[in-house]
Design brief:
Blueprint (H helix, E strand, L loop, with lengths): L4 H7 L16 H4 L1 H13 L2
Protein name: Alpha/beta hydrolase
Length: 47
């Protein structure tokens, strides 16, 4: 999965996960809005 997942968990103890979106730059919400919305809704359902 995400190559820095274990390193991130070491400094972010409540990290719930990471999502890798292939072929995406720094403007994730503009490049893949449907994937961002789906991920946000799934996260919110888990709260």
């Amino acid at each position: 999965m995400y190559p820095l997942d274990e390193a991130a968990r070491a400094i972010v103890p409540n990290l719930r996960g990471a999502i890798d979106i292939p072929n995406c730059g720094h403007w994730t919400q503009q490049e893949h809005p449907e994937l961002v919305n789906t991920a946000l809704l799934e996260f919110l359902k888990g709260l």
